[in-house]
Fold:
Amino acid sequence: MGKRIGMITIGQSPRDDVTPDFLKIIGEDVEIIQKGALDGLRLDEIEKMKPVDGAYTLVTRLKDGKQVMISKDSIIPRMQKMISELDEEEINPILLLCTGDFPSFQANSILLEPQKILHYGVKGIVGTGRLGVLTPAIEQVEQAKIKWKTSGIEAVAAFGSPYAEGDDFLKGIKDLSEEDIQFIVMDCMGYTIRMKEKAAEITEKPIILARTLVARIMAEVIR
Structure:
């Protein structure tokens, strides 16, 4: 049996749309223990977690593949509960499967936060350049610009869901390709390696995929 690691989605587990790409990078001998912050909730309960009045919006996936939007504040206590449960099982490290900007969580294990990994990594690559950001929903476009500006990076954002049928995300890639930018970041853990490959067919801009960047950092931590 290989190393056991934790993975917490802000949606429902298991995230079988995510784990194959991760295992290609971190190794097939790794056991992933998954938990979802929306596990066990009915759809009507999840509907009550929708963002209102300009609340910070997160986009995620339910077990049946349905896309939902939830507010960050509504999900934080449930995320902390999942982290604490994995700590009790002595699962280490633990990955948050979301590039959203969260407050500090309490964890005994190493806690890998994609937002920090992505922003520090991209800052080192882009420097003072201008960045294109692909985000899942139109409600997140202005939010993305502000988030990246806080990290010291000027960003232009477009949207395209990784969970919609077909290649909905490609319109956002096309929009970003017309901008004066150095790189495109696919800023959601829902975007796949296949989606990056599809995007690369229609743009000459270098593309950074959050999922694989985070997976490579995790591989360094566990090996």
In short: The first helix runs from residue 19 to 26. The CA atoms of residues 170 and 199 lie 6 Å apart.
